[in-house]
Specification:
Elements: H1 5-19, H2 23-29, H3 36-45, H4 56-63, H5 67-72, H6 86-89, E1 93-100, E2 106-113
Antiparallel strand pairs: 1-2
Length: 114
């Protein structure tokens, strides 16, 4: 069974909205080239491209979704893909950013969006 790349990209879109991330941020956070997801979108629009063109497991990890859901759309038992886990984030969307200062130190900033 082949995976429809357009459907995978739709699931990436759904998850990235939850995480308030761009394709570029996802690509970089997953250890890929900055425009790799964008290039996959271009390929898919021409009827080309495949899930093998990106590290889908790393993308799933960055987006906080199960790999199997991203690949096939199948949810794991007891898993809901409808918004962030409100209990885990205290009804707030939280993002942590680590800023490298050039030395041995780094600064961690927590951003809370209400």
């Amino acid at each position: 069974m082949s995976t429809n790349i357009r459907e995978v990209l739709e699931r990436i879109d759904a998850a990235k909205v939850r995480m308030a991330m761009s394709d570029r941020q996802i690509s970089l956070s997953a250890g890929m080239q900055p425009d790799q997801i964008r290039e996959l979108r271009r390929s898919a629009s021409r009827g080309e491209g495949s899930v093998e063109d990106i590290d889908l497991e790393a993308v799933a990890k960055v987006l906080g979704v199960p790999f199997q859901w991203l690949l096939s759309g199948e949810e794991e038992p007891g898993l809901s893909m409808e918004g962030p886990d409100r209990d885990a984030v205290g009804s707030q969307l939280q993002r942590e950013i680590v800023i490298e200062t050039g030395g041995a130190k780094s600064v961690t900033v927590n951003i809370v969006l209400r």
